[in-house]
Amino acid sequence: MEKVYVIGAAMSSFGYYPDRNLVESTRDTAWDAIKSSGIDPREIGFITASHMGRGGTFGQRVFAQLGLSGGTIINCENACASGGTAVYLARMAIASGVCDMAMVIGAEKMTSIQGFIPPDPADYNGATGMVIPAGFAMIARTHMEKYGTTKEQIAMVSVKNHRNGCLNPRSQFKMPLTVEQVLESKIICDPMHVYECCPTSDGSAAVILANEKAAKKYCGKPVEIIASVVLSGAYTDRPDRTMSELSTRVANAAYKEAGVGPEDIDICELHDPFAITELWHYENLGFCKRGEGGRFIEEGKSEIGGQVAVNPSGGLLSKGHPLGATGVAQVAENFWQLRGEAGERQVPNAKIGMAHTMGGPVTGLDAGACSMQILKV
After folding, report:
1. Which residue has the higher pLDDT, 234 or 342?
2. Residue 189 is a catalytic residue
């Protein structure tokens, strides 16, 4: 199997852009990634395009504007894990020798796709009010009751990520918050407040992957993808809301493939659509023991410069969450961090990074899909 490296990356600013043409803005992001790597775009042998609700040929429409039609372009939709899944497919293409170089784009225009996920007739949870915010509010309440986690500790996640987002020029929100401001904001679903929820976002991201020969040709400091895993949820009629079996299983598989453990991760861009989700995933990904997520954030262990810098980009809470772009943007952030190019939010001496996304509610499942990449320089 060929080694696979990230050799270029780009990301638009995330935000509320109802008048922005998504095909054109994604084209510009893809071109920025090509320019950043210095490659000849005609050498790209495989393209994956991550999106939801954009129509089956979104990738073809983007790359036709770049003069890159005629090749292999695969559109990828896998809920919030779409971007990570697209990276997984591109990595497999290079690792198996199908091509020397691949490109991944991810994009979404959340401001114009209201109702783009039709209700599942068999989704009994949703029909009875168990929508996504309610589900995570129940996770928060269960974690609080079982482990003594406090509202203040959960709010600290949002405070940290908004502080990091202020350092990221591409972040949707550049708005510092205090714990008091978070807890005084509007209740969305008790105990969850509006400042503990990610925003509606538009945006795009792109990364370029290459085998070792092409990486050495074009990049002085490539970043290797040492693990890439995509798995789906397992059915259970008695879910333990204090853990994500799926994220834990994906993390364990990725650690095994990479030959590292959670103690080796310097930076982690993880899926934080709600503040409780990040605290929850500290435990699911093995950064601390079950029930210790509240102490982990309170003691500053997930800060830039802490035990593991979690969401130095600002995460979904501050950077934004255009669904198809998120997983690709996480890999781009890892690329910049591991090369020492992250500016004011740079994690000191970062050598190994992680990108994690999960989503897609399915009745009886923890989640529909989860993806993870581990990268090193």
Report:
1. 342
2. no
Single out the catalytic residue among 76, 80, 99, 288: 80
Is 76 in contact with 86 (CB distance < 8 Å)?
A: yes
DSSP state of 120: P
What are the extents of the domains in the chain?
4-113+201-226, 124-199+228-249+256-376
* DSSP letters spanning 7-43: EEEEEPPPB--TTS-HHHHHHHHHHHHHHHHT--GGG
DSSP-derived 3-state class of residue 257: helix
Task: Give the CATH number of domain 124-199+228-249+256-376.
Answer: 3.40.47.10
Sheet order of strands, 101-109 included = 73-76, 46-50, 101-109, 202-211, 4-11, 223-232, 369-376, 352-359, 267-269, 309-310
For domain 4-113+201-226, the CATH class is alpha beta
The structure tokens 């005084």 sit at 184
Do 101 and 43 form a contact (C-beta atoms < 8 A)?
yes
> Exposed, middle or buried: residue 258 (CB in 10 Å: 0-12, 13-18, 19+)?
buried
Give yes or no for residue 68 having a pLDDT over 50: yes
Query: DSSP assignment, residue 170?
Result: T
The secondary structure of 26-93 as a DSSP string is HHHHHHHHHHHHT--GGG--EEEEE-SSS-TTHHHHHHHTTT-TTS-EEEE-BTBTHHHHHHHHHHHH
The 10s digit of each residue's pLDDT in 212-257 is 999 999 999 999 999 999 999 887 766 778 889 999 999 999 999 9
Measured between alpha carbons, how far is 267 from 351 in angstroms, rounded to an integer?
8
Q: Is 193 a catalytic residue?
A: no
d(CA 92, CA 75): 15
Same fold, 4-113+201-226 and 124-199+228-249+256-376: yes
- Chain position carrying tokens 């809301």: 241
C-alpha closest to that of 79 among 353, 313, 293, 365: 365
Residue with tokens 């983007």, as numbered in its chain? 62
Q: Residue 348 corresponds to which amino acid?
A: P
Catalytic residue (choose from 193, 271, 281, 321): 321
